[in-house]
Model the fold of this input.
Amino acid sequence: MSRIFHHDTILILSMDDQAQTRLSYELSHNDCEIRQAYNLTELEDIVGESPTLCLVIYLDTLHPNLYDIDIYKEMADQFFLVIIDALGEDLPRDELDEIPFTEIIGKDDEAALYDIDSFLNEFYGEESAA
Done:
């Protein structure tokens, strides 16, 4: 059973224009709205405007405009987070692993995310998704 509804929103947070464009295009094939934020202030302004399925964070910098563990934890209480690791060795994995309902994927695995319904079913399992 699909967990996506046409009124759901996928939020994308990234300061990288190419990543924003690519993720928006690829995720637009899902039956939901795509909203983009280029910093945490923009993200906080659009959260809650419509039902949110998940937040996709393209994490390529630890700049405070993009990275705030407390805001991520607050968001994880509301919806699923997917963090695309574009930092490699510099990723604060221990800190991020403490956030519930969060999946960290490498930037080389980004394509697995494009079918968000399948991705979430894999994370939660078929039984839980139904």
In short: The first strand starts at residue 9 and ends at 13.
